[in-house]
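Encode chain A's predicted structure.
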Amino acid sequence: MAQRDREPQREVILGDSKVTLLGTAHVSRSSAEKVQQLLQGGDYDAVAVELCPSRYNALINPDDLAKMDLLKVVKEKRVLMVMTNLALGAYQQRLADQFGISPGEEQREAIRIAQESHRTLLLIDREISTTLKRVAGNLTWWKRLTLFAGILGSILSKEEVSEEEIEHLKEGDILETTFAEFAEDRQDLYIPLIDERDQYMAARILQELASKGHEDLLVVVGAGHMNGIANYLQSPMASPDERISQLEVEPKPSRWPKLIPWMIVALVLSGFVIGFQRSPSLGWQLVMDWVVINGGLSALGALLAAAHPLTVVTAFVAAPLTSLNPAIGAGMVTAAAELFLRKPTVADFARLRNDTTSFRGWWKNRVSRTLVIFFFSTLGSAIGTYVAGFRIFERLVD
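Encoded structure for chain A:
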């Protein structure tokens, strides 16, 4: 197949501006070469890339992970988001190892040439955190759980990328391909991962043309986005600014998942009251059940995550108390304890991206291990809450 077919192009004329859309494959060396060829031989006055500020920073400053405030991540409850990003990075590293080229090489090339030639560089993609939240908002809680489990499970796999996955990668959107590998229903992912981003990037291009008046713009995007962006550019869009604002709205979390823990706390405390009213011995037996089951399962989770022995003890003590206050999770306490007992070194942060490409590496690296401890101890406490709750109910009805 000729190179021009692998890197399709479309031109869109918008008033006095010409927009050249170059469809690329993010794991294709020929795509990087095509970007170089166009920019070195063309008269483009600006270059737009399929990156948001966060992904741009991660691409050009990969060592920024070393500056991550892990305790702040825990306090702000961003552990699952960080773990997901690391797992996605691990999957993409597998691609790099198999193809011998880093994903996004054509974006790096576009950035490099734009900066060296003093061309305006435009970041037109939506923030990845917003996209991930809108993906989650488009899935049921069960599909979110299976998707997250699948992404984390990818670090266990030593298999090379299949032929089917390679074909999807040739379509050019690595974010969509990465998620789609673990999704049961890819249609659920299409709107937030592809269609919304097509609209967003088209609106960003129109916004930049209106404000800066670029006459000749090269847009480097995954081939899977090229036609969608072109179609939205040619369709009437009353207000690009308004459309961007609409697509940046993050879905509000449902209220009922937040209410359930408080309802469980109310039931458990009511159980304690009823137990002590019947007899002090029954009341204390219920308290003992709560402490042993909840604390034991949280401690087991910390133990499975290879936590420090004192962190395991902390999990046992903290979980029965934190479960009665859903605002503070057991994982927050165990992660803080682990950070105090085994403070990550600069080398841990430096190796984080590579270590998380393997199952063993997640437990070996102090940064990722702290995240795993948070997750497992929280999961253990959550399971313990329900198990202990049912145990209390059984004693009361006997």
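The beta strands are 9-14, 17-24, 46-49, 120-123, 216-222.
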